[in-house]
Amino acid sequence: MSRTYTRRDTSLVAVQIAVVDPLPLFRDGAVAALAADGRAVQTPTDVVAWALQAQEAIVILTVRSEDDWDVLERLHEIDPATCAVVVLLDEDSAAAGVRAVRAGARSVLMRNASPETMRRAAAALLDGQSVLPTAVLAAFAAGGGVPGSRSQAVSTEQLSWLRALAAGHTVTQLAEQVGYSERAMFRLLRALYREMGVQGRVEALMVAQANGWLGSPARR
Fold first, then answer.
1. Dist CA 175 CA 220 (whole Å)
2. Among residues of the chain, what percentage have pLDDT more than 90?
């Protein structure tokens, strides 16, 4: 059972939708259901590159492997305000659902959800709502979704990245600012997140704030 709740009001105008799943039959069913609202639905091979070109987008992403988790994190790093992700999971696991949200998913559904359920989830995002399994909500309510603070310091350069992200810079803007390619910047940030023991930008900034890194000189 799932519950819909308001998370953040976003104005997704002329939103583009992508479906990413390894099975063509599944993709076709999802595309047909989502296109019923008159929206163009695509199935890009490289959804990260596609999302970077889209002004505002919803991605329906099946997550089954670590590579898929990596794609989710990369999508989240683009700009969470304009790229909303609905994650589809094979396993009915609260832990996996929490991980998906912490990695940037706005909604989480089981992969065996009906095409109509996916359509409603996409429509909910347009209304500024998210859809999560009740078990995932319960895990967050119990504190299971809150990352712990880490005492490990970061370098001066890494601290500058975190401060830029906290100020609202996208990864593309950060890469231009510090002189790395966008791909290299994504790779460096993922390495930083692993060092910090977090799943993505949101958790990294929470840990940085908890440690005082965003408002004080870097700790070496």
1. 23
2. 24
